[in-house]
Design brief:
Blueprint lengths: L1 E5 L10 H15 L3 E8 L9 E8 L4 E2 L3 H4 L4 H13 L4 E4 L17 E6 L6 H8 L4 E4 L2 H9 L23 H10 L2 E6 L6 H6 L10 E6 L3 E2 L4 H14 L4 E4 L7 H6 L3 E4 L9 H8 L4 E4 L4 H5 L3 E4 L5 H12 L2 H14 L5 H12 L6
Helix pairs in contact: 1-14
Length: 370
């Protein structure tokens, strides 16, 4: 089958959740023998591969504001026609709008005979979401049941929504038991995030205990193609670097390719998930679990289901100081730590690219649509 994912912001190494999840899903679909095509806006990148088609009718700035696409497309007809042409020329069987706006779900420019799916990675109640649903996609794929429930509470019609989890790369194996024990004893605490204030990194650094945590703390912050206000990401980076510079054993590390994230988390004693807003899925936590690294974070959004018994989650009202306390308690309790580590691998079993690809194919099959 020929499958297209439309995501205007797609880049081969974009440090953002949707892009990373779709790339891993594409890997799984490829392993199962399907052909995957990404359709994205210009400009071209030196890392573009043969499975990526750049639109000639739309070029996006970097960085750009979230949903700025709407103002850049006062007349969307040229883009609609180009996408329809690409889908016909590539003999696409199924097209997935990866978002109501950045994935052009609100336009849904699919030629007759091409099946459609709308992916939902965060809650939207705006006009673009309403328009996306009015196009009657063959299936709507939220990233978690939490997102379905949250959207329904906000008044969105979620009838027939079918949850599709994010796929986690299969690039790193869990460390051996001996290595995991050494990590428990001395390994660094690690996390990484987009440079977004909602990720809670600044609050985490402000609450860093005076006595430290007895091991290095390593944080990676990366700038994505989009931000919520001009200069947001640079503001976050500046603040976090300023805070980290004052703290012993705390480093803000340079960005790494997202393909290396799983290995980075495999080398951690504990992975932190300090987002102060609910995560509709939780990519960082999922990748940590897949390599046996216990997760400490807030019990928000989908994280309680995702992490289960493979970490320590606290109430947001407990504050970031409680996260640091949980880290210290966990690494000091060897039996509990290793129990959580073993559970982590089991918790992520269904998130491999092939496993998620199989679920995707089942949910998007012609007879699966409600």
């Amino acid at each position: 089958m020929n499958i297209a994912f439309v995501l205007l912001t797609h880049e081969p190494d974009e440090p953002a959740g949707i892009e990373r999840a779709l790339a891993s899903l594409a890997d799984g679909l490829g392993e199962l023998g399907h052909r995957v095509l990404f359709v994205a806006a210009g400009p071209p990148s030196a890392s573009d591969g043969p499975g990526l088609v750049r639109l000639k009718t739309l070029t996006l700035p970097r960085p750009m504001l979230v949903d700025q696409v709407l103002s850049l497309l006062p007349s969307p007809l040229p883009v609609q026609r180009e996408i329809e042409s690409v889908l016909r020329e590539q003999d696409i069987d199924l097209v997935c709008w990866a978002d109501a706006v950045a994935g052009l779900g609100y336009l849904s420019p699919a030629p007759p005979g091409v099946r459609t799916a709308l992916m939902v990675h965060f809650m939207r109640t705006d006009e673009s979401m309403k328009q996306s649903l009015e196009h009657k996609p063959g299936v709507v794929l939220p990233v978690s049941d939490y997102l379905t429930r949250d959207s329904a509470r906000a008044g969105v019609d979620t009838t027939g929504w079918r949850a599709l989890p994010n796929a986690v790369p299969a690039r790193s194996d869990p460390p051996s038991a001996d290595v995991r024990e050494q990590l428990r004893r001395t390994g660094p605490v690690r996390t990484l995030a987009r440079a977004d204030p909602q990720k809670g990194i600044a609050q985490l650094l402000e609450a860093f205990p005076e006595e430290g945590v007895g091991r290095p703390v390593q944080i990676i912050l990366a700038t994505a193609r989009f931000e919520f206000w001009p200069g947001m990401q640079e503001d976050v980076l500046d603040e976090c670097r300023r805070l980290a510079d004052r703290l012993p054993d705390v480093e803000i590390l340079p960005r790494i390719p997202w393909q290396d994230v799983q290995g980075f988390l495999a080398g951690a004693s504990v992975a932190l998930a300090p987002s102060v807003e609910p995560e509709t899925f939780g990519n960082v936590a999922a990748e940590a679990l897949s390599v046996g690294t216990p997760v400490v974070g807030y019990a928000l959004g989908h994280l309680p289901v995702l992490v289960g018994e493979a970490g320590r989650l606290v109430d947001l009202s407990d504050g970031p100081g409680r996260l640091w306390a949980q880290v210290r308690e966990l690494v000091d309790d060897a039996p509990a730590y290793h129990t959580l580590s073993r559970q982590a691998v089991s918790q992520a079993t269904g998130l491999t690219p092939v496993a998620v690809a199989r679920t995707f194919l089942a949910l998007t099959a012609p007879t699966a649509a409600p």
